[in-house]
Amino acid sequence: MTPETSLKNAIRRMMKKEFPDLFYRKLSDRYSSGIPDNIIIYHGVTFFYETKVPGKNPDPIQRFTINEIIKNGGKAFLFKSVEDARIVLTAIKNKVQWSYAPRQANNNILTPTEDLQGIQNIFT
Q1: How far apart are CA 68 and CA 66, in angstroms?
Q2: pTM
Q3: What pLDDT shows up at residue 106?
Q4: Region of residue 62 (left: phi > 0; alpha: psi -120 to 50; beta: else)
Q5: Rounded CA gap, 15 and 107, in Å?
Q6: What is the rounded CA–CA span in Å between residue 58 and residue 62?
Q7: Residue 80 lies inside a defined structural domain of this protein
Q8: Where are the alpha helices (DSSP H) in 1-124?
Q9: Domain for residue 124, yes or no?
Q10: What sign does the dihedral 41-115-85-60 (CA atoms) show?
Q11: Number of domains present in the structure of the chain
Q12: Is 123 within a domain?
């Protein structure tokens, strides 16, 4: 099992345990390039997320797709840890008001953990 698969499985286990009432679907497979890994609907909020292990970043088509989702009013995140997923889902559960578009550093999309200062009022 690859490190990325292990991380994806850990995120799914955490979601199932801590957020059992969310709707989750895997979207991408090895044949669909650029599509985020998953879609989540939780407490009326729909978002996409891409999973990468620390030290890895989305490839250009993945960055393009995430940015297009955000540009068109959608929500998309890069998760590099279980904690990244927990931050977003806890904020939704607690109805934290965010206005957030993932910032970029060195042409890479920052994760929620890396960009806590940039997270404000997304779920309004």
Answers
A1: 5
A2: 0.79
A3: 55
A4: alpha
A5: 29
A6: 5
A7: yes
A8: 3-18, 60-71, 82-93
A9: no
A10: positive
A11: 1
A12: no
Q: What's the confidence (pLDDT) of residue 50?
A: 93
Over the stretch 48-70, which tens digit does the pLDDT of each residue have?
A: 999 999 999 999 999 899 888 88
Choose between 83 and 100: higher pLDDT.
83
- Does residue 99 carry a pLDDT above 70? no
Q: Map tokens 């953990």 to a residue.
A: 113
55: left (phi over 0), alpha (psi -120 to 50) or beta: left
The amino acid sitting at 77 is F
Q: Which residues of 38-70 are buried (b: 16+ CB within 10 A; e: fewer)?
A: bbbebeebebbbbbbeeeebbeeebbebbbebb
Residue 14, amino acid: M
Secondary element (H or E) of residue 45: strand 45-51
- Give me the mean pLDDT over the 98-103 stretch: 54
On whether the CB atoms of residues 11 and 85 are closer than 8 A, the answer is yes
Determine the average pLDDT of the residues in 81-98: 84
